[in-house]
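From the methods appendix. Each design record in this collection lists the tokenized structure first, followed by the designed amino acid sequence. Records were kept in a plain field format so they could be parsed without special tools. The example shown here is representative of the layout used throughout.

RECORD:
FOLD TOKENS (186 positions):
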């Protein structure tokens, strides 16, 4: 049984022609438009499949989709995919928290800051009952173009004479193993 294509309207014919000759349209969409254009010329599914080097099954599939839904049938159908891990309310809480100021630390903890780090944001959200992974927080903030502060680490010594020793070390010239001064590179 031959699959017959219904006559195309003038609007459909124009859009199909535009898609088949488009250089910026996705290849899959242009290929589907080629199938419809060849079918409109009167070619059968086996001839179209042979000319475009695709299966007859694919040609018939796209002809049926076009017959059922016109030009919108040539678009990709929505796919179910993996369900979202976090509900929209939870993601909104993360974004709102990231846009707010971090809480002031208790006395003696650390100096106050006006920026969130991913670790602090994760800990604060966990305190509020929203356990969320650091990687998910990063993904959400990146999608919203929200910047976060990268953690900086430095060493502090317990030695009471550390400040004096540090100045002494910083003031010494850089000496090579053989006793030669190292050339400064900047």
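DESIGN:
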């Amino acid at each position: 049984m031959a699959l017959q294509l219904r006559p195309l309207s003038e609007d459909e014919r124009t859009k199909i022609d535009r898609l088949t000759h488009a250089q910026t349209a996705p290849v899959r969409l242009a290929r589907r438009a080629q199938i419809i254009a060849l079918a409109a010329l009167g070619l059968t599914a086996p001839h179209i499949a042979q000319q475009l080097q695709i299966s007859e099954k694919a040609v018939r599939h796209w002809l049926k989709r076009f017959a059922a839904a016109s030009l919108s049938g040539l678009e990709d159908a929505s796919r179910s995919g993996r369900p979202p891990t976090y509900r929209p309310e939870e993601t909104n809480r993360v974004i709102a928290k990231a846009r707010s100021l971090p809480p002031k630390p208790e006395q003696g903890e650390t100096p106050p800051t006006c920026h969130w780090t991913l670790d602090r944001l994760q800990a604060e959200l966990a305190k509020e009952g929203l356990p969320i992974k650091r990687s998910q927080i990063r993904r959400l903030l990146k999608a919203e173009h929200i910047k976060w502060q990268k953690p900086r680490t430095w060493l502090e010594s317990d030695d009471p004479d550390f400040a004096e020793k540090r100045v002494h070390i910083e003031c010494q010239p850089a000496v090579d193993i053989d006793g030669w001064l190292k050339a400064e590179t900047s």
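APPENDIX NOTE: The mean pLDDT is 83.
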